[in-house]
Amino acid sequence: MTFNSNADVSGSGAKRRGPGGGAIAGGIGGLGAIAVILLNIFTGGDFSSLLGGGGGMQAGPGTESEVENCLTGADANASIDCRLAAGSKVINAYWGTQVQGYRPPQLIIVDGSTSTACGTASNQTGPFYCPPEETVYIDPTFFDILEQQFGDKAGDFAQLYVLAHEYGHHIQQITGIFDQYPNNGTGPDSNGVRTELQADCFAGAWSADASRQTDAHGVAYIQPPTEAQIRDALDAAAAVGDDHIQAQSGRVNPESWTHGSSEQRQRWFATGYQSGPGACDTFGAGTP
User: Fold this and answer.
1) Which among 170, 213, 254, 270 is most buried, taking Cβ atoms within 10 Å?
2) What is the per-residue pLDDT across 17-32, written as a single tens digit (0 to 9) for each?
3) In a 3-state reduction of DSSP, which class is residue 175?
């Protein structure tokens, strides 16, 4: 997705939190490490123990500041920190029209690592939503991994798709979906998978409406996505399906799935994109 250069994206409220200390432990490399990192990115879980090594990551609370130099759409197109901050503003604008009494989550752009109520946020744990804090944490260096794995499919739209997915979890938190459908284990029909697929669907719903959100001067924040951008987002969703990631390690086991197959992730994103959030009842679907 491309921001209109003259759009006013200031005042997002996003913050950047500086290093909390510590160092990344060594571990497995190559495709195995990438697969683990992708699990972290798109499930919100912490699979960093699979990377092996000793010592782990030590993180303190770090120091916090407003995201700087993020005033216009041109700034968002030029800087990933600003793009995420601006993206949060557009996502909040959308959900403010969809959820009565909507309250935005906090967005923390992580620089290195930091402690949270849900554990360490770092470049191992990946982007995640922390329900007790109602906060989204993202370390932008993860998108470098996506570019290594997917090439141009890890472009601007894929980055905002990840952000919108995490904001989808915030919708589940504030509307009571998490309480209504608590985690009941793994598997293709589990609440965990249905939760992740619904977040994909919510991300799709926002993506379809994003170009209709405007700033205080009536300027659209974002240009309508191109067919190529939509295709790339769908390809990225497929690439992080449980079955695809497991296939890279040699064995596909549906009973261990936590976020759905490639086909499911594509289908639910497309469902939201085509039909809006009202069509995102993954829990009511017989087979999600």
Assistant:
1) 170
2) 876 533 333 332 333 3
3) coil
